[in-house]
Amino acid sequence: SSGDGLRFAKEQKIKVTDVTPSLVPMVTKEEYIPEMQGLSLKNVELKLLQKGKTVYKEFGEMLFTHFGVSGPLVLTASARCGKRLSKGEMQAFIDLKPALSLEQLDHRLIREFQENPKKQLATIMGSLLPSKMIDPFLGIVALDSRKMACETSKGERAAIAGLLKAFPFTVTGLRGFEEAIITKG
């Protein structure tokens, strides 16, 4: 839409009620999100927080784009909490392994590291993450992808497990056209 309808309505003194785009993708702040453009995630949990309060939490599928995130999970989130963005950014977290507790995930990492002590982290992470996500993921925890599993400390392993349960990004807005609902009087 060019917005002409909204302008015409205002010129005719028709009351116009502003609305927020709904069922649209979300725009993110971090530079690592576009690096994963085209990557689709299935069976993940998305949680959105604003000022420390959870405003959305749901399980499903999502997609990384050149500007942020999209997919069924994100579109539903935009419909439920899009207006809240006028009050400021939202912190978002993806639980990449929602079927596993943090403890179960740590045990899996220990097993992977013990069975493959001479393999690089990038290779081991390939059994846990899509390949397009490995470099941005290891960048967030500040680990060299060439580091050997046997060289990884307990603290580094905990950071990996924590990030698998809460992969972060910031939602700054919605990607949609500005629209309005026109009402009489």
By secondary-structure content and strand pairing, the structural class works out as: alpha+beta
What's the count of strands?
8
Distance between the termini: 24 Å
Unreliable spans are 177-185
Strand order of the largest sheet: 2-5-4-3-6-7
Mean pLDDT: 91
Percent range of helical residues: 25-40%
Q: Indicate the proportion of strand residues.
A: 25-35%
Shape: elongated
Report the radius of gyration as a whole number of Å.
21 Å
Query: How many helical elements?
Result: 7
Largest sheet at a glance? Answer: 6 strands, antiparallel, barrel
SSE sequence, one letter per element: HEEHEEEHEHHHHEE
Short description:
This protein is α+β, with helices and mostly antiparallel strands and 185 residues long. It is built from 7 helices and 8 strands.
Give the arrangement of secondary structure elements.
Blueprint: H1 4-11, E1 16-18, E2 26-28, H2 32-35, E3 40-50, E4 53-64, E5 68-70, H3 72-81, E6 90-95, H4 102-115, H5 121-125, H6 131-140, H7 154-165, E7 167-174, E8 180-182
Antiparallel strand pairs: 1-8, 2-5, 2-7, 3-4, 3-6, 4-5, 6-7
